[in-house]
Design goal:
The protein is of the alpha+beta class. The chain has 15 helices and 16 strands. It has four domains: 180 residues, Nucleotidyltransferase, domain 5; 91 residues, GIY-YIG endonuclease, CATH 3.40.1440.10; 98 residues, no CATH class; 78 residues, no CATH class.
Length: 463
């Protein structure tokens, strides 16, 4: 078997936005290096000063070097029928593959990562960076942070790995069924091996144990592995993968529960790589407050975390439609509900649909009684139900609880629970914060699976 040991220098950390400034390829026959190819590359873009300080490769140095496209055929010929080997292989491979593709070549080879192999075959070192690992193994490393020097040291390291591999670990890594080389360099395969195929949520954590991403899954193992496939070479993804050191998980009874738990955990932990759910906020709400004259007032306004919020809405039109129903059926004043504005009486006062609270002709006690009546009507209008579904095991069921249009919480109950007495179940559930996002996905679920919905007698529970 032939191996191509590769090291590159670049203008930045991700392939889609950066160029290659130097390449070294060492062809290894399993015993020793049999061929070497090195070249500076003109990246056709500016080399940042901090990169120049690290590598010593300046814009002047590469000014007369070949551009990648002019040597791409030579590079492809050296790589396409070999095993691609590098220290943190996915970085080098992503750059080479991306730039070969721009030149019309499709690279699709097996990969080996000397970081991952070193962790297995030479365990116990404090660091597996190339420089420190070479120091620990007494491998000469000359011309550090230049492609030729780093590739030569990696070739010596790879020879030592081959010699130390008495258990056939390298062969196992190259097996077609093995996805290990696709894993981030700092994530042990043992974390993947212990993942179940159940629904649930998973946490990617960095070296210090900080959660950097929370996700939900119908199948935990399959979903986690999907993060490490594909050819996305963006800076965001490269940084994300590099920072994954561990994976934790929590099994849920259903994908719906996983979705809700994910949303809650993102709000609690605020991981840096979760972006979509961070943007979701409740936009409008129905508020209740008492004004200086003692009148209870209902109104629609932008959602605020502080305040007496009765219900939330995705848009203001939805809120005004509901408020107008409450006004009409309880003979409330549109002016006191902020539907109409002005100093004079509301337009409904002339038609006796308003009793004159807007101009002080109706005492606040009488008006407030009808506001309280409207609030009671609102509670009756809003849905109260539970969803009974499969649990984590055959001996339990899952239960999600919605009360008066708000998500209360969820949990697990015995598979033998008497569902005729739903009010006894609520106390066993874990409360969760409610939001429009969570309520909307629950309502969509009940539309799709109405047979799993159990109506709740809200009056019986609250009395």
């Amino acid at each position: 078997m032939m191996y191509a040991i590769v090291d590159i220098e670049t203008t930045g950390g991700y392939a889609s936005g950066n160029g290659i400034t130097e390449i070294s390829i060492q062809i290894h026959d399993g015993l020793t290096v049999v061929e070497t190819w090195d070249s500076l590359i003109n990246p056709e873009q500016y080399i940042p000063s901090h990169i120049e300080s690290l590598t010593g490769i300046s814009n002047e140095l590469v000014a007369d070097a070949p551009v990648f496209n002019s040597v791409s055929a030579d590079i492809y010929a050296l790589l396409h029928n070999k095993v691609f080997v590098a220290h943190n292989v996915n970085f080098d491979y992503s750059f080479i593959r991306h730039h070969l593709a721009l030149s019309g070549f499709t690279l699709n080879t097996k990969k080996l990562c000397t970081v991952r192999l070193s962790r297995k075959l030479f365990p116990g070192y404090a660091s597996y960076s190339l420089g420190k690992l070479c120091g620990s193994l007494q491998i000469p490393l000359e011309n550090r942070h230049r492609a030729g020097g780093d590739a030569a040291a990696t070739a010596i390291l790879f020879t030592k790995l081959l010699e130390a591999d008495t258990a056939g670990i390298i062969g196992q890594s190259l097996a077609k069924a093995s996805r290990e080389q696709a894993l981030p360099p700092n994530l042990s395969k043992s974390y993947i091996d212990r993942l179940p195929s159940n629904p649930g949520i998973y946490y990617f954590k960095d070296q210090k144990g900080k959660v950097i991403y929370v996700g939900k899954a119908k199948n935990l193992r399959k979903r986690v592995c999907s993060h490490f496939t594909g050819n996305n070479v963006s800076r965001q993804r490269q940084e994300f993968l590099k920072n994954i050191h561990t994976v934790d998980y929590e099994i849920c009874g259903t994908e719906l529960m996983a979705l809700i738990h994910e949303a809650t955990e993102i709000k609690r932990l605020w991981p840096e790589n979760n972006r979509a759910l961070k943007k979701f906020e409740q936009k409008y709400a129905l508020f209740l407050f008492e004004d200086q004259k003692g009148y209870l007032r209902l109104g629609i306004d932008k959602f605020k975390k502080q305040g007496n919020t009765l219900y939330t809405f995705n848009n203001i039109a939805e809120g005004h439609n509901l408020l107008r129903i409450l006004i009409r059926e309880n003979q409330l004043c549109e002016k006191l509900c902020f539907i109409q504005h002005g100093r004079s009486a509301c337009t409904h006062h002339a038609t006796q649909q308003c009793n004159g609270a807007c101009i002080g002709n109706e005492h606040s006690d009488l008006y407030n009684a009808r506001v309280e009546q409207a609030i009671g009507q609102l509670k009756d209008m809003l849905p109260s139900f539970a969803i009974i579904d499969q649990g984590r095991t055959d001996d339990e069921q899952s239960c999600l609880w919605v009360e008066a249009g708000k998500f209360y919480g969820m949990g697990y109950i015995s598979g033998y629970t008497d569902l005729q007495h739903m009010e006894d179940i609520k106390s066993t559930l874990q409360p969760y914060p409610s939001s429009d996002y969570i309520l909307n996905i629950i309502l969509s679920y009940t539309d799709k699976y109405p047979e799993k919905k159990r109506d709740i007698n809200f009056q019986a529970i609250t009395q």
